Amino acid sequence: MSYEVIVIGGNFAGLSAAMQLTRARRRVLLVDAGAPRNRFSLASHGFLGQDGRAPVAIMGEGKRQLSLYPNITLRDGKVSRAQKEGDEFVVTIEGGGEERAARLILATGVSDTLPDILGLRERWGRSALHCPYCHGYEVSGGELGILANHPHSAHSAMMIPDWGATTFFTQVLFEPDEEQLARLTARGVRIERSPVVELLGDSPKLQAVRLADGRTVPLDAIFVAPKTAMASPIAEQLGCAFDDGPFGPVIRTGENKETSVKGIFAAGDAASSMHNATLASASGVLAGVHCHQSMVMPPAG
């Protein structure tokens, strides 16, 4: 084998996993398809030491630091297939042949499917946002909305008033129950039952939303949780088990970040329902550390 570990994915999780293994002096290949989920955001926030930096700049610096170690290979490319052959994993890279390793780390991420509303996609990551902890401070003090598109939307709406005056758009999909309505009212959240049909303003800025009944509601930002799907078919190809998350499937892992397939570890958004730069990086560290330990410590029993 040319490599001991192949890391698939070069965002925060994959880079963090690769750093642990590289510093453990293992021969590592990191393959990055170059389409990170956070590519639509101008800045990453709440990430200690990196607050306000562009995600592409953070990843670029991470790759630069990794490249200083002699035992890692960084390769741009898309992994189209992976399979297990005996004690090895064989990875096929589009236009780059095959590579083999004893371990794999999947940091392949997820893709987002947004509600089909005019003007939403071009504002994604700018004024149409997924996480108040990641972006709430930057829009605080303005008129904020939350678009109900999943069963936990009312819970999310209860948090948003800490950042600004909040309107909860039920979209005729997720009407709050009696208890939720009481809590939303106590938090000062306005309830709007006419669906949002269009986002208005000079994109990527948001000035208002148009409702199905023709009215417009002034807004500076709107929060929406997209449905997610695996950004890569590799985990499924390898036979990894999945769990149903609130927004989409996630790769099942144990506390050591190992998947249901021995020798394969997973980290980042593909393996967690909580999506955040710091959490992705931390999960990558765990995956890298436990992957290394799996190579040097025999299994108990």
TrEMBL record:
<keyword id="KW-0560">Oxidoreductase</keyword>
<dbReference type="Pfam" id="PF07992">
    <property type="entry name" value="Pyr_redox_2"/>
</dbReference>
<dbReference type="InterPro" id="IPR023753">
    <property type="entry name" value="FAD/NAD-binding_dom"/>
</dbReference>
<keyword id="KW-0285">Flavoprotein</keyword>
<dbReference type="InterPro" id="IPR050097">
    <property type="entry name" value="Ferredoxin-NADP_redctase_2"/>
</dbReference>
<feature type="domain" description="FAD/NAD(P)-binding">
    <location>
        <begin position="181"/>
        <end position="284"/>
    </location>
</feature>
<feature type="domain" description="FAD/NAD(P)-binding">
    <location>
        <begin position="3"/>
        <end position="126"/>
    </location>
</feature>
<dbReference type="InterPro" id="IPR036188">
    <property type="entry name" value="FAD/NAD-bd_sf"/>
</dbReference>
<protein>
    <recommendedName>
        <fullName>Thioredoxin reductase</fullName>
    </recommendedName>
</protein>
